[in-house]
Specification:
Strand order of the largest sheet: 2-1-3-4-5
Number of helices: 5
CATH topology: Rossmann fold
Shape: globular
Number of domains: 1
CATH class: Alpha Beta
């Protein structure tokens, strides 16, 4: 059985490390991108079953990422996590995010949504 492949677009942090570990323990394959442009390049070359993105990320925020995704991929779950309380939840959801969380968020909730 193939593992579901998740694109994780998030800066280095202990939360990110815990998320990767929990996803791996639950049978997901995690591909990392450290900024928005890297994520867009990965999306153009690979197929993913879900995306978890930090809202405010270098070289293209989550909103830009979502708008780019719509151009070349099938509908997939997109979970956005906002660490800085930017008040962009409504706009990000309108663009296509399936879930939006303000940090802190329970990692098990994210895993459950992806299953």
């Amino acid at each position: 059985m193939n593992k579901s492949k998740i694109l994780l677009v998030m800066e280095q942090s202990s939360f990110r490390d815990e998320l990767i570990q929990e996803l791996g323990c639950n049978g997901f394959e995690v591909v990392n991108a450290y900024d928005g442009l890297e994520a867009i390049k990965l999306l153009r070359k690979n197929s993913f079953d879900g995306i978890i993105a930090q809202f405010s990320i270098k070289r293209a925020d989550a909103l830009e990422l979502i708008l780019n995704i719509k151009d070349f991929t099938r509908k997939i779950p997109i979970i956005v996590i906002d660490f800085k309380k930017s008040n962009m939840e409504e706009e990000v959801k309108k663009a296509g995010a399936t879930h939006f969380f303000y940090f802190p968020v329970n990692i098990k909730t994210i895993v459950k949504l992806l299953k």
